[in-house]
Specification:
By secondary structure, this protein is an alpha/beta fold. The chain has 11 helices and 12 strands.
Length: about 300
């Protein structure tokens, strides 16, 4: 039997690179769409994208510029366009396929929900927030909804902060190593997260659950607050203590290092209700276990 084919859009980033390796581990044929010359199709070539998508079982769109920057006018446009225009291009190309992908899982973000310190935000009862990041998430999901691809099930995946060997872990571990790994701001803001391996497993699970539609929250069922997050980061590295960072200092520091304090001060409390109700079992439900696995840096064995 010939291997199943997955198309990964945005396969060169932290998550995309991990997904590409894991799909190959699981015996899938992988095609890629991106800006890199090594991709099977580039974003400016609709015909090549259609060719890559035709006959594929699964499309996973992870494309999007990093939000770790100052939200000036140019960066806002780049962040928005890198999500909306790539989703639009995939929709155009998929609509031209003789055999479009059965499942299209498109990244979205758990940041779409409001600053929540009172109760978790599920897919059905969660309240959407306001501001630039929420506007991006809404436009991203609206673009997916506007794509007309008969026979393709479209799932917007509202992803929490993804943890693994890279990504957000690098700056957090660097802060702890320098003795600055204390809580940030009040330390009470919620931190919803998911291990990159569980995110990969969620994608496979959703592809197999043909009756599930979006949006779907991708987050561990056990979020922590910022105080516990930084404590566990320090423990995983064997660092006994860390200096807390007040909000005013974070604001000043964010300007200097060209990022936004929203990334650490917004209370993200994302509940994966649909996944739990469908019987999905997290391999890394606790943050302590996830951070210890990341600290060991061992390659992940095949799940088949």
């Amino acid at each position: 039997m010939s291997p199943q084919t997955v198309v990964i859009a945005g396969a060169t980033g932290f998550i995309g690179s991990y997904f590409r390796r894991r799909f190959l581990d699981e015996g899938w044929q992988v095609r890629t769409v991106g800006r890199d010359a090594s991709a099977d199709a580039q974003w400016n070539d609709d015909g090549a994208i259609t060719k890559a998508l035709d006959g594929a079982e699964l499309l996973v769109n992870l494309a999007g510029r990093s939000v770790n920057c100052r939200y000036n006018k140019r960066h806002r446009r780049e962040i928005m366009d890198s999500r909306v225009l790539t989703t639009r291009a995939l929709g155009r190309a998929a609509a031209r396929c003789a055999e479009p992908p059965h499942t299209w899982i498109n990244s979205s973000t758990g940041t779409i929900y409001r600053h929540a310190g009172d109760h978790p935000q599920s897919e059905d009862s969660g309240e959407l927030g306001s501001g630039f990041s929420v506007d991006v998430a809404r436009a991203w999901e609206d673009e997916l909804g506007a794509a007309v691809v008969p026979g393709t099930r479209k799932v917007p995946l509202r992803i929490a902060i993804v943890l693994g060997a890279g990504g957000v872990m690098s700056p957090l571990r660097n802060l702890a190593r320098l003795g600055l790994g204390g809580h940030m701001g009040s330390g009470t803001q919620k931190f919803s997260w998911i291990h990159v391996e569980d995110l990969f497993r969620v994608v496979l699970f959703l592809h197999g659950q043909r009756g599930m539609t979006g949006p779907v929250n991708a987050a561990s069922p056990h979020p922590v607050d910022n105080r516990e997050l930084m404590s566990l980061v320090r423990q995983s590295m064997g660092v006994p203590c860390g200096i807390p960072t007040p909000a005013w200092l974070l604001e000043a520091g964010a300007v200097l290092i060209r990022t936004q304090t929203e990334l650490v001060l917004k209370s993200r409390w994302v509940e994966p209700r649909k996944l739990l109700d469908a019987g999905f079992a997290f391999e890394y439900p606790s943050l302590a276990g996830a951070l210890n696995e990341i600290a060991k840096g061992k390659p992940k064995p095949s799940i088949t």
